Amino acid sequence: MRIIKKKSRIPNSKPQDEEISIKTDGEVSSHNLMNILGLSKDVIFTSVDIGEKNNVSLTIVYIEGLIDKKILNNDILKPLLHDSIIAVANYEEDIIKHIEKGNIYCSYPKTTEKIEECLNDIISGSVALIFDNKKIAITFDIESYDKRAITEPTGENVVKGSKDAFVETLKVNTAIIRRKIKTPRLVIEETVVGKQTLTTIAIVYIDGITNRHIVDEVKKRLDSIDIDEVLATGFIEEFIIDNNYSLFPQVICTERSDKLCSHIVSGRVGLLIDGLPVTCAIPGTLNMFLHAQEDYSQNFWVSSSKRLLRYVLLVLTLLLPAFYVAITAFHQEMLPTELAIAIEVSKEGVPIPAFIEILVMLIAFEVLVEAGIRLPRSIGQTVSIVGALIVGEAAVNAKLISPVVVIVIAATAISGFAMPDQDLSNALRIWRFILTVFASIIGLFGVSIGVLLLLFHLAKLESFGVPYLTPFVAQEGKQMQDSIVRLPLKYFQKRSISLQATNKKRQG
Question: How far apart are CA 391 and CA 402, in angstroms?
Fold first, then answer.
């Protein structure tokens, strides 16, 4: 492990380019551990003399707050000091053998002669017994699992489904998945990302179903990440997706356990990040971002109608402002006479053109959304009401904004809120601005150009080799039973072709 001190930028200081290194390739000893961890007041070093004549000395090292002291006292210290077999031992070799054979009441002792492994275990919540003469450390995982209680999801509403959301503790999250997917083929592998945070990431998939090429590619991209910290999903997501410059999400993020388990069973790979209650499913496609987990717990007629409505609302939230600007500014002849007259009457006295009205209202809407997110919940709702009703009504009465524009923006906003995935909604909101600008330049022709560019981008986009527009492109035209509409579950005979699952048979 090396820390490089760069040249100082502070005025009147001498430039330096020296390398400060922490040696983690030396021998295991309390002295070396003290040199590395000794500055931290929460790292405890305790010397204990054991054996028949107290002639064997060892050092106990742990980080206060990360371990369970009750287990340390009852299951480790008490046997060391009072166990009859250990008490008559005179040599370190005998004591080490007794510990490894189970005289300490703590499972899975880990013996190491590498200081780096010992450091990683201590930092992860283990207690280490250091035998300085033999340069050996025995560590026990007694991490204290102080965790938040499992509650309902806060960012995703549950209408009819599982209400146990993920929490910040990785082992709790993996246990939640194990309770739902009880097959012995469920594989949970772990890797560490982040040079400073050393964040553990669990890779979850089902052996025999998930395509090994996708699993290997996920591992390869995770191993290639070279950053200091992993404190949000974006630190992982931006390094593993195929196109960093696309506004559209390529990884399905969720805090719902049933949703992630459904994706894993379908042949996707799940990622669980220690310290975060949000998980990821890979790969993500546009069709999946328009699905809700409740689609599979309701009658297929109801689910199909709701899903079809979402596609309509997607088009509406994306195109309605641009369409209004194009029609009112360039193509008034396309409107019925009565509607055209009504729009002109509503615009009477408004000093700004339709494009500026729409742009101002779209920006105002974004400001309200951002304010509602940042403020406390009790105040955020008040801000939304004040901004939408009082300020909007005042702007209309003052002839700054026409009433039709307020209706258009309100319909656009409500349509956007109907999207099941927030990341998809954010992408649509930005593309809404782009299409409105195109419409203000050359009307419906500009809107058509913008839509074609958007479709070209989506058609070109892939996520881990899977086309983003699956199942509407490539070979997926044959598997449309779970796309714009949902057919009865008995027709779900095979898994998605694009995922290239090892076991393509889903039922029957």
Answer: 13
Sheet containing 110-112: order of strands: 43-50, 56-63, 126-131, 136-141, 110-112
- What residues have CB less than 8 Å from 231, skipping those under 6 apart? 197, 199, 275
pTM reported for the whole predicted model: 0.85
Q: Cα(506)–Cα(508) distance, rounded to whole angstroms? A: 7
Beta-bridge partners for 253? 280
Q: Choose among 458, 432, 435: nearest CA to 446.
A: 435
- Rounded CA-CA distance 237/263 in Å is 17
Residue 266, token pair as written in the block: 């379908």
Distance, CA of 172 to CA of 148 (rounded, Å): 10
Distance of alpha carbon 284 from its chain centroid, rounded?
A: 13
How far apart are the C-alpha atoms of 351 and 348, rounded to whole Å?
Answer: 8
Q: What is the pLDDT of residue 393?
A: 76
Mean pLDDT of the chain: 85
3-state secondary structure of 271: strand
Mind listing the pLDDT tens digit for each residue in 79-129?
888 877 877 777 888 888 888 888 888 877 889 998 999 999 999 889 999
Residue 190 structure tokens: 């772990």
| DSSP reduced 3-state for 57 | strand
Coil, strand or helix at 77:
helix
